[in-house]
Amino acid sequence: MAAGWVVDPPELRGWGRYPLRDRLSEAAGFPALLDKDVTAAVVAERWAGAATDSRNLLFFYLGTGSGMGLVVEDTVLRGVSGNAGEVGGLGAAFSTRPLVDEASPWARSEPSPRSSTRPTPSAA
User: Fold this and answer.
1) The dihedral of CA 36, 42, 47, 50: what is its sign?
2) What is the pLDDT of residues 80-101, one digit of tens each?
3) Cα–Cα distance measured from residue 122 to residue 124, given in angstroms and rounded to the nearest whole number
4) Is residue 80 left, alpha or beta, with left meaning phi > 0 and alpha meaning psi from -120 to 50?
5) CA-CA distance, 59 to 36, in Å (whole number)?
6) pLDDT value for 106
7) Measuring CA to CA, which residue among 66, 61, 27 is closest to residue 43?
8) What confidence score (pLDDT) does residue 109 get?
9) Cβ atoms within 10 Å of 73's Cβ, excluding its own
10) CB 76 within 8 Å of CB 93
11) Which of 7, 9, 11, 119 is the most buried (most CB within 10 A)?
């Protein structure tokens, strides 16, 4: 990343070994910096977001992956390998067993209003 190259990002197929920093710099007409997404996010929060008055900040991101951006005493921590704040993979176990016993008062017979299940439109 220090050289400004994107190397096989899992969410950007076809971008293997691409000189993104230099291309952005050429297009914009001024120097560009390439950094990890969550590191860029913690810098943005410190610079112009909710943490403008904070010298110490931990920014946790959970999306297609998980990670943290760290600012300590106004210094972005990247670590020796550039991986400071990496949380790693989160595993999930799947089961066909119900999470709640059907006889329990906590069991629902209808989907939760927050459920992603949508009712089917009725035929008119």
Assistant:
1) positive
2) 888 888 877 656 666 676 666 6
3) 6
4) alpha
5) 13
6) 57
7) 61
8) 55
9) 7
10) no
11) 9
